[in-house]
Amino acid sequence: MTSSLKPCALLLVLLLFVGLSLGARATVFNENFVPVWGADGYHLANHGTQVSLTMDRNSGAGFSSKMMYGSGLFHMRIKIPAGYTAGVVTAFYLTTQPEYGDHDEVDFEFLGNVEGKPVALQTNIFLNGQGYREQKFYLWFDPSAAVHDYKILWNQHQLVRMLVDEMPIRMLKNLPDRTPGYRFPSRPMKIRASIWDGSSWATDNGKIRVDWNRAPFTSAFQRFNVDACPATGGAQCSSPNLWWNKFRDLTPVQKEAYKNIKSKYMTYNYCDDKGRSNLHLPGECIYN
Questions:
Q1: With the CA atoms of 246, 32, 145 and 122 taken in that order, what torsion angle do they form, in degrees rounded to the nearest 10?
Q2: What does UniProt list as catalytic (predicted)?
Q3: What are phi and psi of 78, to 5 degrees?
């Protein structure tokens, strides 16, 4: 899983938000988030500036932001379970309400695996309830060995997924003029995180399932500050006065890093899937 190759392009990527997140004060969980399920003190254990989500045969766990947001930089520090984790899904995502149906969603999903094999990071985007926009990566580090940063930048111009040290791994631009009928996610969304049983699909297309004899499985979440525009009281979440709305594209150095990550660490891209001939490829595949 861990690559010995750490390209200069990765190490030289400009810190897009340097100083804005590094100097942020530690915020406790209860300030901006609430438990959604597994809130029994064990499956969801609130330690103030860190929350542990545990899955066993009885339950998984999840939490949500208290508020809906219309734009922002969404940041979470995560450490996933180690060892045999086949079927275990650790997720950090944004979603409209209701969460299912005709909804928008932006996902980070860690797909567990058997011991000794890499864990895939799957990203996906739902628009009007339509997903099938998966991209998968084997990262250049072991996400179960330590806490790492995961970020989603969402504004009216673009949606950028960024990993540790601000490395961009996925980008979706707002392209209404180029792609008739294409809709960029613009409805207010909540921040969600969870650990749950994805045995039916997560590992080797569901051929390898959760081994409950190896439970419990625990993920850690940190960094509960929210740098975003609350979608309340007619807030102008597309205002150019909000710092995260000033970013319209990647810098040249970031573009080079983005290209490098896609070529070296991406293992699946929905836009390149020849087996999807019965599915309509979304218009963003041409321009993003």
A1: -60
A2: 105 (nucleophile), 109 (proton donor)
A3: -135, 140
Task: Output the CA–CA distances (angstroms, integers) from residue 1 to 8, 39, 59, in the order listed.
Answer: 19, 33, 29
Residue 102: pLDDT band with limits 50, 70, 90: confident
Residues labelled catalytic? 105, 109
Tell me, what amino acid is at 230? P
Quick one: pLDDT at residue 1? 44
Tell me the C-alpha distance between 260 and 267, whole Å.
Answer: 13
| pTM for this prediction | 0.89
Q: Cα(81)–Cα(104) distance, rounded to whole angstroms?
A: 28
Q: How confident is the model at residue 250 (pLDDT cuts 50, 70, 90)?
A: confident
Supply the pLDDT for residue 118: 95
CA 159 to chain centre: 11
- For the CA atoms of 131, 69, 144, 35, what is the dihedral angle to 10 degrees? -100
Bond preceding residue 98 cis, omega within 30 of 0: yes
